[in-house]
Structure formats: C-alpha cells, structure tokens
Design brief:
- The chain is α+β, with helices and mostly antiparallel strands and 211 residues long.
- The protein is built from 5 helices and 10 strands.
- The longest helix has 19 residues, at 127-145.
- The radius of gyration is 18 Å and the shape is globular.
C-alpha cells in the first residue's frame, strides 16, 4: 500500500492508504469546502475519486471522530443531484447523494434508519461570490414578500470573478475523467459545476463496474 497526502502542509492536510493497483483520479480543490450531512450532523471532508472507489476523508480537527468512507463503484446503485430549496441556497451550495446497494465491501456513515445522507459543496468564498449570493437572496425575498425592493441590486452587472491559475487537482486520469475535465479549469470552477463533474464521472465509473 502507498500513503498519499492531500493539502500537504496546510491545517486541513489529510492522507489516504491506496490499495494495490489503485490510482488517484481527482481530489477536491482546496478552494472548495465539501461537507457530509446526515440529519443534523455535518462534517467537512476531502473528496477523492480513484479508479476503484469514491472516498471521503474527514478534515482536521475531526472532533466528531468521523471515519474515512469508501464507496466502491461496484456497490453503488446510483449517484444523483439533490435540488436546493431555493435560489438563494443554490447560489451558495450544491448537493448530491449516493444510493448504495445492500452488502458489499463499502464502509460509510448512516443514521439510525440506514440512510447515508448527502454531500454539500459550498461556493468559493470570494467577495464576488458572496455578493452574488446576497443578490440571489434579495431577489428571492422580493418574490416571496414583495415589500422589499432590490431593483438596484438586480441592475448591477458584475464582471465574472477570476483567480490566478493554480495547479490542477487531479492526477493520472483515466479516459472518462479526462474527457469530462477537458474544458474545465478547477481553479475557477463554480460549486455547481464541480458537483456536476463529480456526479458525472462517478456515474460513468458505476456504469462500467456494473456492466
């Protein structure tokens, strides 16, 4: 087995023991926060996609003692988008969940009813994204209550926010992951795009493993 480290040298450094023949395909970009949610329990994770499994690694300090989760593709029934409750939530978070078959070698957290919850990807906390989220929330409030006006905010036209290019966050990609990522720059990808990429790639791997 080989041990690989992610976000090395930072306060959220994590590591994973790779199995024989296992290769890392994608790692969550440092700029994005991804959390697991089961009922009211949430914890931040580093998401890793390998050629064998979808992995979540609890980020430090992990005070809830959450374990590393392994979702082997052969054990996954499907992976799906989860709709946000409204426009303001969608501007801040993107959600997805994984449905598992019974049995198998996967290990993951579940609630008392056997439900394994869902995943939340937060928008990058840049000034422009926060402003966009604020505008979306004001528009939603206008639609619901009418007595609040945000005409000025709605008229604002902000230039798309762009950061300097940083290193790619995936390595040794297989053909499907390369194809899906061909036109993506993960240093600038939004939370919804990142969610869609993860769901798309994992779905393809599940389809291959299940024949």
């Amino acid at each position: 087995m080989a041990i690989v480290k992610f976000d090395e040298g930072t306060k959220v450094e994590t590591s994973l023991n790779l199995e024989d023949g296992e290769e890392v395909i994608f790692v969550k970009p440092p700029k994005n926060l991804i959390a697991r949610a089961i009922g009211l329990k949430t914890w931040n994770v580093t998401v890793v996609i390998t050629n064998k499994r979808f992995v979540t690694i609890p980020q430090p300090p992990n005070r809830k003692n959450c374990p590393v989760e392994s979702y082997y593709y052969i054990d996954i029934e499907n992976i799906n988008l989860r709709e946000a409750d409204g426009a303001s939530e969608a501007s801040t978070w993107s959600f997805f969940h994984i449905n598992m078959k019974s049995g198998g070698n996967s290990s993951y957290e579940v609630d008392k009813n056997g439900v394994n919850g869902y995943f939340m990807i937060r928008m990058e906390m840049s000034i422009m994204n926060i402003i966009r989220s604020f505008i979306a929330e004001r528009k939603e409030m206008d639609a619901k209550y009418g007595h609040i006006t945000s005409a000025g905010l709605q008229a604002m036209d902000y230039q798309h926010y762009t950061e300097k290019s940083v290193d790619k966050y995936y390595a040794r990609q297989r053909e499907i992951a390369k194809e899906r990522a061909a036109n993506m720059d993960f240093s600038n990808t939004g939370h919804a795009q990142l969610r869609d990429y993860i769901v798309d790639v994992v779905s393809q791997f599940v389809e291959i493993m299940n024949g």
